[in-house]
Amino acid sequence: MDGHVEGLGRGTGVAAWTSPMSTFMLKNLANVVASGVKTGKGFKKVYFNACARAVNEKFNTTLNSEQIKNHLKTWQRKWAKITRLKSLSASGFVEDNYIIILDEEHYNGHVHDHKADAEYLNKPLENYAEMETIFGKDMAIGKFAKDSSAPLGTEEGDTEDGAANEDGAANGIEEDPSSAFEEGATSNARPNKRAKIVESAEDGLIGAFNRVGDKLAMAITQVAKSNDELPEDLFAKVNSLSVSGFNDLQISTYYAHLVANPLIGKAFCGLPFEHQLHWIAIFVKGEGKGEEAGEEEEEEGRGRESSAREKKKDEICKREGKLGDEERMMTRR
Questions:
Q1: CA 78 to CA 81: how far, in whole Å?
Q2: Coil, helix or strand for 91?
Q3: CA-CA distance, 27 to 33, in Å (whole number)?
Q4: Residue 33 maps to a domain
């Protein structure tokens, strides 16, 4: 902020401002506001003239009221940015030293996207008290005041030329301002100009919600991933075991087993080749025993059914034999 030059236009020359000069000018105008002078519609030209004389006497310069007004506009833009940064959801503010604080993570993320904001964060703000007195939150001056029809989140009075002026100010050079701080300048008297967005979606509370929402969505996506997902190379790993003598039927059967049990399939893929061989060998051996046991159980079942049929047949024969004896006895009588 030290030693920058402002181009003023209108044949008024240029002014080289140092930090002490800026501080002196702001203190002078802050004292005007503190004395009770009404500045809701901007400073009267008489106060700019008086401020210019005071600065010239103090620093042996030849500034005029236009140069004072132009430099005040530069500081009002700084104040607008400070106000915006203070409203960040992750920021804090130290009243004693006038410091906007962001923790390391939020600072790095914000400065990565908005490099020009670095000079306002985590360090004392130059001339904060004076700016607060002049541009305080309830104060709207000149063309910076909004009328009731202005959309929220926009700032009027900035055309493409105005945007270029802001870029110039960032490099220490500024075009001549409009009558921003002259008495009687109201929002209704301003010509219609294209409004521009003051804050992008990445700034302020909206930006904070967006960043938190993105992180939350990523976390939910990770948690919601199904445990049924199988490694893409699962079959290739199982099929590679065929070199150890396992046939296609055994390979296919073991692969089906892993697909039906995804957690086992994931663990299998993480094993060294020798251990993979052990797993499939144990499985194939177990499957063989299961088949043998199944055949034995089936044979036993058939034997039980045959025995049951024989027993039933004997019972029928016995009943028929008993009936035949009774009939023969009746005939004899």
A1: 5
A2: coil
A3: 10
A4: yes
